[in-house]
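Minutes, project check-in
Item: structure for the 334-residue chain
Input as provided by the requester:
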Amino acid sequence: MSQTQPPIREEPRRRSPAGTTPLLLTLALVIAGALLLALLPRFNPPSPDAPPPMVSASARAELLTSPSPLSTPPPLGSAALAAAPQPAAQPPSPLAAAVARGDPPVYGYEVVNVYQHDPGAFTQGLVFDGATLYEGTGLNGRSSLRRVDFQTGRVLQQVDLDAAYFGEGITVWGEEIIQLTWQSRKGFVYEKQSFELRRDFAYPTEGWGITHDGRRLIMSDGTATLYFWDPNTLSPVDSVDVYDVTGPVVRLNELEFVQGEVWANVWQTDRIARIDPVTGQVLGWIDLSGLLTPEERSRADVLNGIAYLAEEDRIFVTGKLWPKLFEIRLTSPD
């Protein structure tokens, strides 16, 4: 009896581990490459000269119309503004309103004292030296230099000019008195105490008023110009044109230096201009209308003559052929 061989059982084949190596390596390389590409811009920023990235038209429109997180909040509506508390409106003062318009303020006056004044004195210059009042008078044949007791009006000392000269403004400089003449273009220098004539000098314009600021003489010639003179040479070194909102201020006459300002009578008016000597701007006006009664005014000429007693802060004014010398105090602009 034959014997049959048992069937051979075939064992399933196992895949060699080495067979998976190429596939895994490929996957690893792919992942590493992707990571490298993702990280590359951080380590290699674009050149500043490189062109900007392209943005589509739709994306650009969306960016332009989208609100910025830093944009300014919208303004309050009218209802919110109305509900907010508002400061009470204050009307501007008259002086502030005048300054805002560019109009120089106009000052009034109060009469403090009234003194007698020679009604025959055609006053062209008036100045204090300490408590002593000096006066220069005009008109051909009647021009003079005087020392006056202002409290009584009495003339204490006088020297007359030659009839060829029409006397004008005066000022005291040190131990001397300087006097101008109108159209002769000649001035005179006197010793202050004796009135002895020391010398004369020439200048290129008419002579109207004269004062000083402690450094320079300041002179007017009837125009809108103030001239600054060297007090040692009596020659012009500078000038400034005087103006207000209407333009040049002409016919500047008798002058006085008051606390840093040049005060000037304006011929044929009842006003004094307060002038900034640096710029020439009129800082204010002083209206002196009404000082004389109508009867006194009928026999007198124009306002002319300002004297400032600096030690006592007192202001005195008079005019040509006026019977009175007035001490005044300024009042605030209306």
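Outcome recorded: Residues 104 and 284 are 5 Å apart (CA to CA).
No further action items on this chain.
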